[in-house]
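Example record for the data management plan.
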Amino acid sequence: MDGWRVDSTASPQFNTLREGWKKSGYSSIDADLEEAFKSIRINVQACQCKPIVLPKEILGDFLLFKYRAKNKSAKEGASGGWRFYALFDRSRAILYPIIVYPKKKWVDAATELIKQSLAEIIAILSSN
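Corresponding structural encoding:
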């Protein structure tokens, strides 16, 4: 299906992480993510999308996906590149990235960070 939207500005946690990685020397993060978002806008399951199963009490009617994207600063392609988690609102066909990190720095996002980021973005979306 064509026409998915990506709102990469809604999550305060995502924006904080993105700016932090940029300040840590990952100058290509914005361009790298935009390239991934371009693919996701065409196919929400692009970028080696992996569904993350969490209880309905946490996710509600949303879906959670984990993606891989190239990191041009690392020059390693997707295997050593960016990982990001995103909440998908099926009813609006909008993907909300909530966590981003370079694979070289974190093996994965901490479970508590994922839960906090989800609660934060779901509260924001519920208030709109």
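Summary line stored alongside the record: The chain has one domain: 5-127.
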